[in-house]
Amino acid sequence: MTGPTEGASREPAVPILPELHGPADLRGLTDAQLAQLASEIREAIIRTVATTGGHLGSSLGVVELTIALHRLLESPRDRIVWDTGHQAYPHKLLTGRLAEFGTLRQLGGVGGFPRRVESEHDVMDGGHAGTGLSVAEGLAEARDIRHSLERIAVVVGDAALMSGLSLEALNDIGHRRTDMLIVLNDNEMSISPTVGALSRYLSEVKLSSTWRRGRSLWDRSAEMIPVMGGLALELSQRFRKSVVNFAQPGQLFEDLGITYIGVVPGHDIPTLERNFRAAFALGGPVLVHVRTQKGRGYHPAERDQVAFHGAALPPMADTHEARVPARTAGAAPAKAEPAAAAATEPADGVSPVVEKIPNYTHFFAMELVEIAAEDRRVVGITAGMPTGTGMNRLQAAFPDRFVDVGIAEQHAVTMATGLAIGGMRPVVAVYSTFLQRAFDQTVHDVCQNDQPVVLAVDRAGLVGEDGTSHQGMFTIPVQLQLPNLIVASPKDEQELRALLRTALAQDHPFALHYPRDAGFGVPVREPGIVPVGRGEVVREGDDVLFVGFGPIVMRAIETADRLAADGVSVEVVNARYAKPLDRGLILDRARGKRLVVTFEESVVTGGFGSAVLEVVEQARLTDAAYRDVVVRIVGLPADHFVDHGSVTDLRRVLRLDVDGLTAQVRDALDALGHAPHGRRRTQAPA
Fold this sequence. Notes:
The chain contains 25 helices and 17 strands. It is α/β, with parallel strands linked by helices.
C-alpha cells in the first residue's frame, strides 16, 4: 500500500543564503543544507554576472572551498587572504553582501575584488595576482610578534603561484617556518594533473598523529645510536623524503620547508574541512593542494574556461538550461570539449554575439599578425594573458614566435631585452596596471640598453568595473622620465595600426598606449609610418588650443564643436607622442592663443599635460608672445585612486566625458574673464 506522501512532489527547499547574517551561521548547517547553499551561491553569482559582467569561472570554482574555510575559521578574527581577489565572490556573499551583490562592479556598488572599506572580512584590497602569500606571511609574523592566536589562511591560484613574488614569498615562508595555511586552488589551468589514490593516501598518512609522533620518536632514537646516530638519522630522513616524493607533485614545497598535502577534491566540503583542520593542527606552513573545476555549475563556463574567466565575458543568458545539475561530492567533472568545437557551436545558454565595433586590442592583434607575416623578427610576449591582450591570435598564426611567461611581468620585459639584443623585434603586450610591476626592468634592462622593445600597453586609461587596482592611470608619468623610451598613443583604431608599424620600424624602446574601449568605427586606411615626435592639427581655430594625447582627442573635437556654439574658436592638435613632444607644432599653434588646454586619460601629475606646460614655460622665458598663454591640464586627479564603475559612469563623475570636458573649459574661460557671446558668465569658484 502506498504511503500518503509517496510519489508526491517535494516542497521547495527554504532558501538559506538570504538568512545568513555572517560566516558564523554556517556552522549549524547540515551536509544537505551546505550542498543547497553552494547551489544558491552559484545561482546568485550567475544571475548577477549575467547582468554586470565579472570574473565568473574562478568564483564558481571556489564555492565549496570558501564555505569550508568560513566554517572552520572565525573571520574576521582569523584572516582569509584572497590572492588576486577575483575568486572572492562567494566570500562576499557569505559575509553579508547578498542584498547589494546586484551592484557588483557598478559605480558606488560592490567591488569586484576584496575591499577593506566594504567589510571587516576583507583583509586587503586585491586585484593583482601573486601578492597574497606575502600579505599573509606579514599577517602571520605580526600575529607572532603580538603573541596572539588568530589563524591565517591564503587562497592562491595555480597561475598566481608561479609569479616571482609568490616564489619569493614561499621561500621566505618555508625558511621562517611561518604558521599558516596555504590553499592552492588548482583549477587545472597550470598545475600538474591528479596523481591518484597513492598521493591521497600519503597525504592522510602525513596528517595522522601516528605518523607525526612516530617520526619524531624515531628521529630522537636514531640520534642516540652510538657513533652511527647521525648517519641513521640522515638515512631515515632521506627515506621518508623519497617515499613522500614517490607519488606527489609537491616536492618543491617540501624542499622549501612547507608541508604539502594533496590532491584534495575541491567540491567536497567535509573532506576540505577535515584537511584544513588537520593542516592547522600540524603547525608551521602547510600547503593544501585543492583541485577545483573552473566555472563549475554553469555549463558554458565549464566548456570554455578561458572566455568565461575575465571581466569582459561573452554574452550570457541567465537560463536554467545553462546550469549544470548538482553532482555528488567528488564526482568527476564533465570533460571539456575541444576548443575547435566550442568555436563552431554556440555554447548552451549563450546568446549569439551582437555585431559591434571591435576594441583596440582587436585592431592591435590583427595588425601585429600582419606585421609578423612580413617580418620574421617579430616575437610576441605576454605575461599569462594571451586572450586578454589578443596575443592568442599571434600564437595561433606563429606559435614558434609567441611566448607566455605566466604571471611574471618582470621576466617578460627582461627576456624581451635579450631577444632584442639577439636581433629580434619583441612586442610585450601587458595591461597598464600590470606593467607597473616591471618598472625596474623597463629602466635597467630595456631603456638603459636602448633596445627596440615594444611595450604594448593595453587597458591604458580608465578600465572601469575592476576598480582601483586596474585603472591604467599611472604608467605615462612613470615612462616620461625614462631616457631612450618613446611614448605614443593613437586618437583612433586606425592610427593604432600605424603607430604599431612605426614602433616596429625604429631602433629604440617604444611604449604604445591604447585603451580597453571599442574603436570609433572610422574608415579603414592604410597604416603608414608616423614620424616619431610628429603631431597633427585635426581642427583649426583662433581663440583656444586643445592638445590631446590618445583617444580622448576625439572627445576634445566634440568639445570644440560645442564651444563653437558659444562663439569660441578652438584649434585641436592630436599630439600622438607624449615623448618626444612635437614642440614646434605646439608652440606654433599656441602663439596668439589666450588658453591652452591639454587632455589625457591619465593622472595629471607629471604626465602629458605637465610636459606641454614645461614646453610653454620654457618658451615664455625667451619669447614674449607666450607670456600671456595660460595652460590648463585636464585628466585624472592625482590625489586618489579611481573606484569601480562603468567607464561611461567614471568619465561622467570625473568630468572626462564630453559634457564634463566642455564644462571644465568653460570654467577656465570664465576664470580668465573670457565670456563668449551667447553665454552668460558665471562666477569662478573661490
